[in-house]
């Protein structure tokens, strides 16, 4: 009798350990499980979220939040050999349909991300956790409805290219000056009336696109730039201080003729 009980005990113990092993190896989650798992993440502060979910789960959560689960995750995500996400293309390919409206704070968990594309969507703001993407080199968010740009962008110290054309932005945060590797900055078609003095601290900047804004002045510090290209067409830069006027004419002698305030007297 004792011998039979001992055998039964061994069998049940083996089954129990097999069950634990299966649970440990199971890495597949439904969309509901992903959302539940993410909602239980511990937030240390407003800028950092402890990592306990995979990059794929983060992308799934973004798609689910925006009712885009029919988008094939394999067509929007590129991973490195370690399974970390390095490129995420969430451009809206559904012409005439509503795009992504919310970028989840968990985007900050994609710490190996180098490229992020969010063009042609319906974003009005970005989470501060974007600043956690310190390896990000290329950021495109054109043709959205952004009314603000987070100060935390200054933490994305690897950025080389930013494209935020055709939004509703009125100002850039001074922290933009922290981007020492930034080479291209595209700001076309927004509502900027001025730029922060700190933009001159982007010491690697080579191309600056300012067309179609409401600029009536430029910071004096901008004259430090030795740009390869600048576009200031369709602004209100007609009454500039002599130093800025001289600098602009180095890039385009007729820059005043493509402004919106013809006939005004130039500042002496």
Write the layout of secondary structure elements.
Layout: H1 2-25, H2 31-39, E1 43-45, E2 48-49, H3 55-65, H4 73-76, E3 77-79, E4 85-89, E5 115-117, E6 138-140, E7 161-163, E8 184-186, E9 207-209, E10 229-231, H5 242-251
Parallel strand pairs: 4-5, 5-6, 6-7, 7-8, 8-9, 9-10
Antiparallel strand pairs: 1-2, 3-4
Helix pairs in contact: 2-3
Structural class: alpha/beta
Give the overall pLDDT as a whole number: 84
CATH class: Alpha Beta
CATH topology: Leucine-rich repeat, LRR (right-handed beta-alpha superhelix)
Q: What is the percentage of strand-forming residues?
A: 5-15%
Give structural notes.
The chain is elongated. The chain has 268 residues and is of the alpha/beta class. The model is unreliable at 1-50 (pLDDT under 50). The chain has helices at residues 2-25, 31-39, 55-65, 73-76, 242-251, and strands at residues 43-45, 48-49, 77-79, 85-89, 115-117, 138-140, 161-163, 184-186, 207-209, 229-231. β1 and β2 form a beta hairpin.
